[in-house]
Structures are given as structure tokens and as C-alpha cells.
User: What shape does this take?
Amino acid sequence: MVSEELVDSTIQHKAKYHKIADFSLINQNGETITQDNYKGKIYVADFFFTTCQTICPIMTDHMYQIQKEIINDDDVMLLSHSVTPKIDSVEQLKKYAKEKGVIDRKWNLVTGDKKQIYELARKSYLAVKTDGNGDEYDMIHTENFMLIDKNRQIRGFYDGTNPEEIKKILKDIKILKQED
Assistant: This one.
């Protein structure tokens, strides 16, 4: 059962059984990452691209802060999806991961099939309001962080550029951990 307080009002009307779809993407080390890597985990997901100069660096810094807080917690992980997978090759993600202090066991930066990533953003993570027009210039750019529980359900949306929201996400992770 989805705890009402922890669910963003915009998704309360969505089926409470909405789950993140299965996926298969490639991380910064060239490894295939699927939903199984996140099985039984609470995780924070976002969508970014390495060449973004506006909101992404702030979001990545905030993800880094979350990583610091959860570093010794095996139940919690991070997942960042590239929205420019053609540019964000494994090598590019690896370089970015090194620059940003990504710890591999906690945080996957993933690239792969653009259509799959965009479908995940829109239909699974509900990260963007638009359905987009599907053309190559149709770029997903969202500051949303999504908190996903161990049942692959969305438990909240947060503004990844806002430090106050990062405090809230950390508090909500603690609440989710108590649900077991």
C-alpha cells in the first residue's frame, strides 16, 4: 500500500499498482544494468546528460550529497539515466562519473536505447508531463528526482535543484526504510 503522505498529489490518482517497467541499459563501466540490480532496493532516479550546463550539474551535486548520506546503507541506491545516449557513451559516462565522485556500487549512470530511456521517463517514472512528439529534437529535460520503493513504485517527486528538497528526500528514505 502506498503511504499517502509519501506520494506526490499528482500521482495519487494514478493506479497505486503502477510499477517501474523492466529495463536493460549500460552503465559507466560498460555493464548491463536491469531492474534486477535494484531488486529489493530503495532508489533515487533522475534524468540528465553530461554536456548539460544548466540544471544537471546542480542535480548531480545533489545526487552526490545523497550518495554521501547513504554510502553505508545497502538498501539504498541511485540511478541516473542519460537523455542524450548518443553523446553519453560508456567512456563519456565513466569520465563524468570520475569527475563527479560517483561510487560504482551505489550509483549507476546509464545509457542505451534512446526510445527505451524516453519511455521509462514518461511512462514509468512519470518524470515529464509531455508525451513528446518522438522526433530527435524532442529532448527530455527535467529537474525531477523520483523516489522508488522496494516494490518498484514511485513514492515521491522532488526538485533535484533545490537543497531543501534533498533534505526531504533523505527524510522520506528513512520513512520508507521503516515500512519493511
